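dumping this here before i forget
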Amino acid sequence: MGNILRSLQPQQQQQQEPLDPHGLAPDAAAIAALTRDLGSFESSSMVPEGLGQHVTSSKKAQINWYKCILEAYRNATPPRTPAEAAQLVATALNWIPRVDLECFTSAWTNAVSHNHYGSQVNAKCIGDGDGFTAYVAVMDDPRESENVPQKVYEMVTERTQARIRRDYDRADTLRSTIDEAGYKIIIRSGSEILARKYRIRMRGIDAPELKMPYGKESKDALVKLIGGKSSRIYVYEQDQFGRYVGDIYCDSVFIQEQMLKNGHAWYFKNYDSRREFLEWERKARAACQGFWR
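structure:
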């Protein structure tokens, strides 16, 4: 989710990877950059120059991020691989409030990692034009894998054994119980993996309910944008219904922008102050796009 750290996974390369200007391979350069930035912060209390280009949070919040990461670094064995660096950052991020966490995750992935992990959005899990259910593979996020209840892991193992025995009734019962616990067995690249379920509310827009006029068209528009794809979700808060409210990106496209520009949603001004949202809605109205027809 959005609220979601993308792990840094080392990738096998058939050819030698190009070196950075300091003569380091990309993995080594990433670790060196983290170490250098933390050393600089420890001596000067200044976050890396240019961090503000990737995040919107205050300088005070950025300093708090680095305090947490530095503390985690001091209490751990120095990372030797991107995966170990990701684990270290995950430990630190567990200490950071959610609204700051998501902004920092963006900066970390932009600065260090080329492997972006987000949520899988099944088209059947899109309820209307402004909300859906997303699934985050626990293997992609160290925090997720650490927080899976032991009972869920046990049920996953028991379900696998039941399928081997061809006891499909027992396997189906276990799958339903896993679903009730907030997790789901999903298929990715032909393999079954465990994922955590998150209910998502798109930040700053509103759309017709499914049974309202243009409700189906609005939902169908969102399905075309994110259905069956991996999306990146930046979470800012939870609403009164327990949904995670955030900004959605898919295939490098800002989804709320597309929904507004094409007249499939309207600006939710009571809960958002971004002026560009209002401008996108005005242009859709003027062009008679979507339900503005």
